[in-house]
Amino acid sequence: MTMAENTALELVAANGRPVRHTDLADAPLAVRELTVSYGQKPAVFSLDATFAPGRLAAIVGPNGAGKSTFLKAALGMVPKLSGQVIVFGQPLAAARHRIAYVPQRASVDWDFPTRVIDVVLMGMYRQLGLLRRVSAKQRDAALACLARIGMEDFSDRQIGQLSGGQQQRVFLARALAQDADLYLLDEPFAGVDAATERAIIDVLKAIRDEGRTVVCVHHDLTTVAQYFDDVLLLNVHKIAEGPVEDVFTAENLQKTYGGRLAAVHIDQLRLDPQ
Fold this sequence. Notes:
Number of strands: 10
Order of helices and strands: HEEEHEEHEHHHHEHEHEEHH
Number of helices: 11
Radius of gyration: 19 Å
Shape: globular
Distance between the termini: 41 Å
Strand order of the largest sheet: 6-7-8-3-9-10
Structural class: alpha/beta
């Protein structure tokens, strides 16, 4: 057994519920017994979830289901009441450098005076350090990330001058600059135009095809089957997780959304009614 496998096993065993190390050692992200609460109300309760390597996964559920809270707890951005977060078989602190995070666009202060290229270079902070000058090689790498999402011509533009879709593309370019193994994105398609959505999903699929893992909080049920390999259905508790073709069913969605599913045209989702 490797050191990473030992670490993963010890983490879960310390929480009182041992799990075979083979379930965790290769998982880019796994949580066990995760509970997060705001005041007296749990936002996520006793959640077990495991994300497989080289997959594009969606976290789906109604408003208030705990989707964004789950991502933030996995990143250590909000405190958890209980549970463990394991990243590539290690505690979060030991593997944080392997994760890139794209927050909700609405949570960012877009009035901060900075250029597009500087935002992307922020993704290279581990390479740059606090006071190091940006080299020509690093600037070229940042421009290549912008080119990958079709924004290279905007490198000297102030970030606040861009449209919402353009801003989202820039934040994805910043994540690409981190050259991570695990990408966590909080509603990357929210409020963007169709062209931007297409550009984003093309890049996410390319990242997946490179063997990396992508996990997105996602709200549009009509595109889940088209965009994603796996899905975690969440409504405070885990409802189901696994490959889209197995898990994304009308029955599981009804359990996830309850009466709120009436607003969704199930026939458009091409679901197996079983």
